[in-house]
Q: What sequence folds into this?
């Protein structure tokens, strides 16, 4: 058995996660169009390849071959830097998400996770909030009033909703006592005892987090930074070619990451019901080795996590084609006067329940 | 005055808590869109799937031949006169000796052109024709083209081919099954 250094394993995982993020973002464009079509009694793109599955490739070729346009008076360096930053931050945030439990072969045992850090949730928050700079810089550098308005909207919207998001998260952290996403996942399913996923203990917190995730990823009904009907294209009005593609890609990767974070925080991450019973059954009555049974559970858990993530991505798109856009004052009122007080209330309730030992 | 029974009386009263919470309305909307997700789709995948034509559909013109394969058109010009869109132009010529197998009448159309961009497919040419030469086919439409001049159909594209087997190579092609079903449908129509 080859000895694989931990760093090598991590780099493999990170590369796979990177490739997967790009693949998922690519096919999100296809999924979005097909889901939009199905929700409107149409069939969507079905010409390129079987069921139109090659459509994202055709779109990519289109994006890459379009004219690169620089508006007059634009700050060229920042104009290029904006979409790059949006893309980098979107890709960085998936590094700490635990995509599976440990796999072991030979004497090696590794986690299906890029980096295990004890500040995982803080990392995601920090990187995601950097993402607004990509939008801000792009909108500013375009030298266009619509772009600037979109960028300003994006900035104020993200700042407002990050507050409520962070506070709804605090309730989860109070229960878990750790910021490590891996720890939070493992706590949601413990062998040999009844343990529910956090959604059961934190329904209000989940709703707040979910609404804020929509706002953070600039998705309808909170897609004010790029709303076509008012701002032409918002912050990416002046962008063309693959620079526009990077912005759109970053949005889909953000959705992927937001879905992953919601699955991990509230829906048990890579846990699935009766996993320990399945493992024990395999070991005791099927004669499997403990390690290989654990590996099977890990693989099934990873598949389960991706099923949850895809479910959330579908939910994002489903909501987009159902709800109309909020007005800007409604957006701000919802964020500041409803979600933040609710999040504080949620913290108080959680604190009370922990104090009286109802949940732990 | 009430015009329909669908009018809804609006009352301006303060919203209930459920309405202000907004979430029930969202779930209602989500359930509506989800119902549509599973509904039958309205899309007709056009080139592969052709929407059935009515038996009396007026499509692309054809200049018929008679039972001996001679062109029926005698270039009288009545169709051009009848045409409200002035889409038809023709040049008449005299039949030479030895051409009796080609043209039925002594006078025939040297050129006969229909501009499909002008044509409104009203069928007045068909009604005006005394020789039963021009018909609007119920199973073919003028297909899209890239250039405007490609829409001016001359005799090369209008006159029915001599061989009956070759008679549907132009325009929108029906599959044999579609042609059969159309034929059956036409046969069932009362004369």
A:
């Amino acid at each position: 058995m080859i000895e694989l250094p931990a760093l090598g394993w991590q780099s493999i995982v990170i590369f796979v996660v990177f490739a997967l993020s790009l693949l998922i973002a690519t096919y999100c464009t296809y999924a979005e169009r097909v889901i939009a079509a199905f929700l409107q009694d149409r069939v969507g793109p079905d010409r390129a390849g079987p069921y139109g599955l090659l459509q994202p490739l055709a779109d990519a070729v289109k994006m890459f071959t379009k004219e690169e346009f620089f508006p007059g008076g634009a700050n060229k360096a920042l104009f290029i830097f904006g979409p790059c930053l949006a893309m980098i931050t979107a890709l960085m945030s998936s590094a700490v998400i635990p995509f599976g439990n440990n796999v072991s072969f030979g004497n090696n045992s590794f986690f299906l996770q890029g980096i295990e850090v004890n500040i995982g949730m803080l990392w995601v928050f920090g990187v995601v909030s950097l993402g607004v700079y990509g939008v801000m810089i792009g909108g500013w550098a375009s030298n266009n009033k619509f772009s600037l308005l979109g960028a300003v909207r994006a900035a104020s919207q993200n700042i407002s909703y990050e507050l409520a998001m962070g506070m709804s998260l605090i309730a989860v952290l109070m229960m878990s006592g750790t910021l490590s996403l891996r720890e939070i996942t493992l706590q949601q399913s413990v062998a040999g005892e009844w343990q529910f996923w956090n959604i059961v203990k934190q329904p209000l917190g989940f709703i707040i987090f979910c609404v804020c995730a929509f706002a953070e990823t600039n998705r309808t009904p909170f897609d004010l930074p790029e709303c076509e009907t008012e701002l032409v294209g918002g912050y990416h009005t002046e962008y063309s070619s693959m620079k526009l593609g990077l912005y759109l890609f970053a949005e889909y990767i953000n959705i992927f990451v937001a879905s992953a974070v919601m699955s991990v925080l509230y829906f048990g991450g890579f846990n699935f019901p009766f996993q320990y019973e399945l493992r024990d059954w395999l070991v005791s009555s099927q004669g499997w080795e403990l390690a290989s049974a654990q590996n099977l559970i890990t693989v099934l858990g990873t598949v389960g996590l991706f099923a949850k993530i895809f479910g959330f991505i579908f939910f994002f798109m489903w909501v987009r084609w159902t709800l109309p856009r909020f007005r800007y004052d409604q957006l701000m009122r919802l964020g500041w006067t409803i979600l933040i007080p609710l999040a504080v209330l949620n913290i108080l309730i959680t604190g009370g329940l922990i104090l009286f030992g109802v949940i732990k | 005055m009430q015009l329909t029974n669908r009018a809804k009386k609006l009352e301006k009263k303060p919203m209930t808590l459920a309405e202000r919470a907004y979430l029930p309305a969202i779930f209602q909307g989500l359930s509506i869109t989800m119902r549509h997700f599973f509904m039958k789709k309205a899309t007709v995948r056009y080139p592969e799937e052709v929407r059935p034509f009515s038996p009396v559909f007026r499509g692309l013109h054809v200049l018929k031949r008679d039972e001996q394969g001679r062109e029926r058109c005698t270039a009288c010009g009545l169709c051009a006169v009848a045409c409200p869109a002035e889409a038809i132009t023709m040049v008449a010529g005299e039949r030479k000796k030895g051409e009796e197998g080609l043209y039925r009448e002594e006078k025939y159309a040297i050129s006969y052109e229909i501009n499909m961009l002008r044509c409104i497919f009203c069928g007045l040419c068909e009604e005006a024709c005394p020789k039963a030469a021009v018909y609007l086919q119920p199973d073919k439409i003028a297909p899209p083209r890239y250039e405007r001049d490609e829409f001016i159909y001359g005799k090369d594209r209008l006159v029915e081919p001599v061989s009956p087997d070759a008679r549907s190579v132009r325009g929108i092609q029906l599959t044999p099954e579609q042609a059969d079903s159309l034929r059956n449908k036409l046969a069932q129509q009362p004369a």
In short: Chain B has six helices and five strands. The longest strand of chain B covers residues 107-115. Strands of chain B lie at 61-63, 88-94, 107-115, 134-136, 152-153. Chain B has a mean pLDDT of 82.
